[in-house]
Amino acid sequence: MSAQVQQTRPATHEPKKGPVAPAHSVGEFYKGYEEEGKLLGYECPCGYKTLTYILECPRCGRQGGLKDTTFKGTGTVLAFSLQNVPADEFVNDAPYAYALVQLEEGSVVSGWLPNAKRPEDLKIGDKVHWAKSYKVGMVFEKD
Question: What contacts 88, CB < 8 A, 6 or more positions away?
Fold first, then answer.
């Protein structure tokens, strides 16, 4: 009896050639986010979009050809949890909601909402937007 292995992602359109230079550096990625108020990310020709710093598309495996893209930062709450016992960097903000947000452009990101302090302050399906902040992490505000 032989086992068949099914490929989980389609073959790339170009062969992998070793390390690939990213479309932008990690420094530019965070500078755009922290200083310029832009959510910089990547878009692959296969349609995959992400805010995560990547060198290879997790959907199709493509290396290279990833384009810089800017996200608007608006989306919908998919899930959330109220944090009453936070990590040290959030101790002065507790309680707050930590949420998974489906961005309009298609990517899912996690972030926190400092103004959602009670269960009735936020619900699944609420519209939110990214707010540039001096605070750690991706900060969202309810629309």
Answer: none
Res 138 pLDDT > 50: yes
- What dihedral do alpha carbons 32, 37, 39, 40 form, nearest 10°? -20
The residue out of 16, 37, 71 marking a domain boundary is 71
Taking CB atoms within 8 Å and a gap of at least 24, the contacts of 33-37 are 37/132
Q: What is the pTM of this model?
A: 0.75
What does the pLDDT look like over 80-91, one tens digit per residue?
A: 999 999 888 888
Residue 5 maps to a domain: no
Measured CA to CA, the distance from residue 131 to residue 80 in angstroms comes to 17
| Boundary (domain end) residue, out of 16, 41, 71 | 71
Buried b or exposed e, range 1-39, using 16+ CB within 10 angstroms: eeeeeeeeeeebeeeeeeeeebbbeeeebeebbeeeebb
